[in-house]
Amino acid sequence: MNIAVLGYGTVGSGVVEVLNTNQDSINKRAGQDVNVKYVLDLRDFEQDPIQEKIVHDYDIILNDDEIEVVVEVMGGVEPAHTFVKGALEKGKSVCTSNKELVARHGAELMEIASENNVNFLFEASVGGGIPIIRPLHNCLTADEITDIKGILNGTTNYILSKMSHEGLDFDTVLKDAQDKGYAERNPEADVEGYDACRKIAILSSLAYGKQVDFEDVLTEGITKITKSDIAYAKKLKAGIKLIGMSKKLGHDVYAMVAPMLLPESHPLVGVNDVFNAIFVKGNVLGDVMFYGQGAGKLPTASAVVSDVVDAVKNKGSNIMASWKSEKRVLSDVKKSEQQYFVRLKGAGREEAVKKTFGEVTFVSISDEKDETAFLTGTMPEKEYDEKIAGLGEVVNMIRAEL
Amino acid sequence: MNIAVLGYGTVGSGVVEVLNTNQDSINKRAGQDVNVKYVLDLRDFEQDPIQEKIVHDYDIILNDDEIEVVVEVMGGVEPAHTFVKGALEKGKSVCTSNKELVARHGAELMEIASENNVNFLFEASVGGGIPIIRPLHNCLTADEITDIKGILNGTTNYILSKMSHEGLDFDTVLKDAQDKGYAERNPEADVEGYDACRKIAILSSLAYGKQVDFEDVLTEGITKITKSDIAYAKKLKAGIKLIGMSKKLGHDVYAMVAPMLLPESHPLVGVNDVFNAIFVKGNVLGDVMFYGQGAGKLPTASAVVSDVVDAVKNKGSNIMASWKSEKRVLSDVKKSEQQYFVRLKGAGREEAVKKTFGEVTFVSISDEKDETAFLTGTMPEKEYDEKIAGLGEVVNMIRAEL
């Protein structure tokens, strides 16, 4: 079985390395030999043995009937979308790690794959090496999924973990993460939550069966989280995590990416550094969690290659037709209920707070003497907005489930 | 598609409940309607609508060609083994939650299933509702598994968690667990590690491809763990967990069930109460962990029903031929390397310990003044045995990876 790899960057070279390292066991599991025939890249790699497989023209791959599986690890929407669509229409299966592509065109590409009796597989697009797409699709089939909460971005989890363990500021830790190569020079996609947003859109589409458009998902990043927030969280025996979440309540589906206070005993709070984890609740299963390395060359490549094995094993039958292109209209997150941790400007505001919010939990830290901080009860966000409006300036608000 | 359920106990009634609760989505995912035609039980259930499906004679099920899937949730080796074998030979797929059956006869039953082009599926036999069998078989296909560590028994994890959080004795907590129904009146299978032993044998067979006999797995329970051990562990910033572990080093495979000290930062240490988790290391993937409810009526039934969905979807093709009946001869655990936490009788033995073990970490707690406790470096168990022999009476030894 001949395959082609589109893109010889970090993940692409990882895919070649994994196929070489575990050649025997991969071939055994796939049921036949898996051979990389072409690698598409604009660059040449003169010092690398891969050079003999490098092609610069995608049509060579597209028009070679010997290529049965295409691995797309270029990233970005175009030209990946055109390339993938072309391959599927030619009867080639595609395995991708490209979350932008899956979030935007997943339903369409699964449909084209199904029509052509091939597969469009994307295990690596969420959670890197963590098996999550296949478990959601193939394992949790006895359940109605009611709740997903994920730490879906390693960079932001590294930053929040380090802020929490070492009592440092966001800016200091971001710089450290950039120096270590955990964060990009332009960190926006990570720290503003855009990366997590695409991933929760994919998971929500999969869990609830219709296309969730990532543009519809309320997205807040971690740039406003300070070391005072973390000190308050500790007082509340809580951790702050950037959570991509979605939940189904009756006919309503809510989705959001935002920093969140969770109790220290919650399994997600124990997920530190660059690790990712996805917590899923089923109506009969209860809680399960999938944990592992959410990024990195070899873990991500491992997930891509497991898709290649599936594509080879299931040649001629479509195994992954999982959500419809019909749009899932998300319900207004302002109707979604949770608690709110609030830092109000000005000390001594307890009576006013109690008058407005009823029973709350007040909390204080020695570093912030000029504010009144509290945790509300559970209420719709709309109700919180209305109540807080009368109380003056808010230094910060973080959603909570404590 | 008609199915029969063998045994209307906790899991069996759970399977019927899950099929009723999520009927629509299960039928959709299975691609056809799943109907329980018979329930085999020795008892009658006059007040329960299930009574109209109750049969007492297995031959009715075996000889009914309409029955295509048999759910075996009786437990125990016989008559389960005879019933399951008979069903597979008649061309019926079997889904089971029975760890004794899978540990003892898994390879044989998978072979018979394969010869008859049906499936023998057993997701619920390890980790209850946690997807672990299918992920190991279908997801981690790009990797060589090098290491498995599992909290595989909810009862012992509940006991150790409560001892740790509340500073209580083993006997006190066991009694509480029995009162709450988390532990049997005869708790031996749980507290002596026999249950975990069968489960690690299944996982090891699956990960390394040949039959690991559970009788070959060194098995120690938690009955010797005291509140002093836990106090020492806290001083070492560690937790004590009953771990079913196996590892592959070159051509050697080691397997063991024993209490173990792991660092507080290890994801398994955060797994509390009756929850289970399985931590897996792959040579390219790195670490992944699967977490959830390892027992209980509905979580276990959810896993069984997900197997039923797979059996229905994959009618006519064998999807689970995963380990050979050829025996995997385990290597002598005395050659396996780890650290050892040792409590030596008598205070002030530090010099003798250092002379024998070289560099160690001494630790003391106020409750145990008449002993010398220390953590060794990493060495084969045989070397530890030889060294400790000259040092007098050992109050307790617990293996460690710190």
Give your account of this protein's structure.
The first copy, chain A, contains 14 helices and 19 strands. With 402 residues, chain A is α/β, with parallel strands linked by helices. Chain A has 3 domains: 158 residues, NAD(P)-binding Rossmann-like Domain (Rossmann fold); 160 residues, Dihydrodipicolinate Reductase, domain 2 (2-Layer Sandwich), CATH 3.30.360; 66 residues, 2-Layer Sandwich (Alpha-Beta Plaits), CATH 3.30.70.1150. In chain A, a hairpin with a 7-residue loop joins β16 and β17. The longest helix of chain A is centred in the N-terminal third of the chain and has 17 residues. The N and C termini of chain A lie far apart (52 Å). At the A-B interface, α1, α2, α6, β13 and α12 of A face α1, α2, α6, β13 and α12 of B.
Q: Strands, helices and their partners?
A:
The structure is a homodimer of 402-residue chains.
Chain A: E1 2-6, H1 10-21, H2 23-30, E2 35-40, E3 54-55, H3 58-62, E4 67-72, H4 80-89, E5 93-96, H5 99-115, E6 120-121, H6 133-139, E7 145-151, H7 154-166, H8 170-179, H9 188-191, H10 194-208, E8 210-211, E9 218-219, H11 227-235, E10 238-249, E11 252-263, E12 275-282, E13 286-293, H12 297-313, E14 324-327, E15 337-345, H13 350-357, E16 361-363, E17 371-375, E18 379-380, H14 381-389, E19 394-400
Parallel strand pairs in A: 1-2, 1-4, 2-3, 4-5, 5-6, 8-14, 9-11, 11-19
Antiparallel strand pairs in A: 7-10, 7-12, 10-11, 12-13, 15-17, 15-18, 15-19, 16-17
Helix pairs in contact in A: 1-12, 2-12, 4-5, 5-10, 7-8
